[in-house]
Protein: Pyruvate, phosphate dikinase
Organism: Paracoccus marinaquae
Amino acid sequence: MDMQSASNITRITPSAAIETSRHGWRAKCLQRLVRMELPVPRSYAIPAEAVQAIAAGHPVPMASMQDLFSSRDGLVGVRPSAFRPEWGGPGTVLNVGINDVTHSRLAAHIGPENADAIYLDFVQSYAIHIARLDPDMFSQSGENALHDALRCYRDEMDEDFPQDPYRQLAEVLRSMSRAWDGPTARLLRQAKGAPADAPLGLVVQDMALALGPGLSGSGTIQFVDSVTGMPRVTGRFRGQHHGETVGKDAKTLYLTRDERGPSLEEVAPGIFADLVRFGIAARERLREEMQIEFVVTEGRISIIDATRVQRSSRASVRIAVAMALDGIIPEAEAVMRVEPRALADLLHHQVDARAPRDVVARGINASPGAATGRIVFTAAAAQASAARDEACILVRRETVPEDIRGMHASVAVLTERGGTTSHAAVIARGLGLPCIVGASGLSIDSRHRTLRAGDRVFREGEEITIDGTSGEVLAGAAKLLEPALDESFNQLLAWADAAGGIGVRANADTSEDALTARKFNAQGIGLCRTEHMFFDMERLPAMREMIFADKPEDRRLALQRILPMQRRDFTALFEIMAGLPVTIRLFDPPLHEFLPHDREGLRELAESLDLPLSDVTRRVEALSEFNPMLGMRGVRLGITVPEIYDMQARAIFEATVEASHNGDPVVPEIMIPLVSAMREVELVKNRVDAVAAAVRNERHADFTYRLGVMVETPRAALRAGDIAAHSAFLSFGTNDLTQMTYGLSRDDAGRFMSTYVGQGVYAEDPFHILDQDGVGELLLTGAQRARKQHPDITISVCGEHGGNPESIAFCHDAGFNYVSCSPFRVPVARLAAAQSAI
Ligand code: PEP
Ligand code: MG
């Protein structure tokens, strides 16, 4: 480090060359306040290179800080100034410069007790943080505390407490410079996204005294509410309170008129009016809502610091929109200022961060929002609870498709097992239910209907709160905030849409989902998982009958019963989507998911099918597979038992004809799941074409449709060129594609995912954030091969990654046409899409 740059300490004046990258955010912010002619005490910025030199043992170039300690009270404070505020920095050290002489001078002016308090605070903090003496020896208080602390220092250090203000300052600067390189500070800032070698600047500032005669004290003020983002003056003024030093007659005042006690607004209206004026000016000039830190010295005001107001998700939206509407920032900047994920918090209830929380367990935050309800352990109990109008939370080891009805009846879901794409997580996100999965610290005893979390036991019927945003399970009813789908939210998304990023559709299985998708302005349905429609009480028996049928004819008869119901499902979807594209995926899961597994269920099934129990049991066993996710499901089932797809295609086309009568012509999109070979597509296409021709004939109607393929196996991605020849669109099912690329079960990965991410094996959970290096390469390869064969082909992603901002940016950069995600993630995706495009 050359000494030239080390001596580059700069007085913060309007024209000084202060740069955030060298001097840090605080120095730059102070310069802006100085430029606004606010009463900022004299301040100096020490640049990062000088801080490094000081840490390395070079002398502090004091000469460049002229007249330091020459203010009336002769005290200075030192604050960290990192490149970004959230990277923190060593703690502020105040009252540097106090010694026996200044102490006497202060005692004459502000009284001996106050002068003692300031001196004592500095000696204690210097001894502990700079001389690194044992904190226990410096916990003096009471009458002789200052004397005892000075003696203690002398005994331990074999010298008097340093009286030279420049030496004190040099030691403080050295200690703060070195603290920045300590392992804890480094880890903390890296966790906030700072690079390992992030620079630190320091600011040395004359101290304004907040103790003494007349109105003296210190405070903070901000002009918006941190939780709601609405205009509101908040903060406090602490009279006779100087930094951490509490003076004689210390007293806190409200800022604005308040019936509970006196306020600054009443006691010192001039000062209050100045603060309001400064606040308005800071918002306009700094283009940000600021919290201002101020000191009043005998009725005179100083502005010593300003920081960006802390804000909740809803406040961040409200603030960005209000600043754009006031013409302070452009609309596109408002769009860029809100973290897309923050929008998910606005759609649901949230636990009020200000209220106490009794956390009993933690898991993966699988679906955001919060809800309070009584514990139930079965889907049936959930339905009974809903029938009594009692909010309940379904607690399961893991959920299975049969639990869907229970999930519908619950206000939140909690599972002991599972990861971000396990059944419970996917369904809960689709329903907009708060959900925690993989809460492995829980132990569920469904027989005795108890839930154990550590040494606490909860029984069925007891109330808990699920915070799906943080992944925390809370005992009892926590205080909740209402959703905030207000004008600011709509305005921000309208600006986002105007930016024209990648398209956003919704994954919607039911009319309710479709209505949510419309409410959030999705551009269509990108995935309708039709199997969810079969768990209905009316359909399940027909499904089971179909599974047990020996001959195709019998299968067809059973499916005939389902056909009108499916037609109704699709007609409703088409009508709600009013001409927007609707992509319907043909049946995907293995059939055994529709069969009971316990003895009681098997017995009931035997009774309803009028078959001996042994036949039913044998059949169920025959259908069970070692690895059902890689077994007879998706298109493999479609080809082996073609009657199911025939029925679905017919239902889709009949619904197309019906819905087209009622409104805009419908062009359905039919999607084939789990394809791995071109021939599979040809076989299905031939049958679907035949069904289309039959329906056209029978109904004397004309319609078109688009047939596409879900790319969910690595082979389909590699062979996307051939597959594209028969497809109008390809949609990457990145849940299964991730599972198959990694050879990692999406339902079991939760057990070790946190260990893997913790040890850096995976940078992130690949089921949550698209693995751009591996799975991403398959996406790019597949898209490129498909486009080469078929340049106009529509390409999209409909796995859970479609709602993840980083993954959306990847799809945007790859030139995909749209992403499709759970309806409640559509706003997040729209904002992320806009940010990729801006
Ligand atoms: C996928 O695999 O990415 C997908 C969307 O389908 P599912 O989650 O229903 O398997
Ligand atoms: Mg899939």
